[in-house]
Write a structure and sequence with these properties.
Elements (H helix, E strand, L loop, with lengths): L3 H24 L1 H10 L5 H24 L4 H21 L19 H15 L12 H33 L1
């Protein structure tokens, strides 16, 4: 069983992470469509509608995480696992010079680090499947939740930027 404070904090953190990736995709849908085409998994004709479908799915998962809908953690885990597997397949095929499409940093090339990151995020998402203990959440709990989520999100985005810079350095 998981404490409700931890459950809410993890939900909030994952919603921020997926939401940031979602904003990145919405901000430049054409670029995201190009990214999908570069993976060479979908045909050219399907990539435009698929981009909008991915955006809708990420928006639904973000909303479900924010509002605590049942199954949100499992959906997030599937999303992260799917992205991690897709990146792993492309790396195995030697296609490292495409944008991963999963980062708020433009031009984030594929790297095994993104596979590890997505695996860790999928595992974190699965914690939300655990049953939640029943106890009242107080004001101190909410302060802790906000502090944890803000700090963890900051660390996450900092590490994402560092990975991006490392990938740029390796590409030289």
């Amino acid at each position: 069983m998981i404490d409700p404070q931890i459950h809410i904090a993890f939900r909030l953190l994952l919603a921020v992470i997926i939401g940031a990736a979602l904003v990145h995709k919405i901000a430049d849908v054409k670029e995201f469509q190009h990214t999908l085409r570069s993976y060479k998994v979908l045909s050219y004709m399907v990539s435009a509608p698929a981009a909008y479908l991915v955006i809708l799915v990420e928006a639904a998962i973000t909303t479900a995480l924010l509002f605590g809908f049942r199954g949100a953690g499992f959906a997030a885990a599937l999303l992260f696992a799917l992205y991690g597997v897709l990146i792993g397949v492309k790396l195995a095929q030697g296609q490292i010079y495409i944008d991963c499409g999963c980062s708020w940093v433009k031009g984030a090339r594929l790297s095994v680090h993104y596979c590890y990151r997505n695996g860790a995020l999928a595992a974190l998402s699965l914690f939300l499947i655990l049953p939640v203990t029943e106890r009242t959440i107080g004001i101190v709990d909410y302060i802790n939740i906000g502090g944890f989520a803000a700090t963890a999100a900051g660390v996450y985005f900092l590490l994402d930027a560092v990975l991006h810079m490392k990938n740029l350095e390796l590409a030289r």
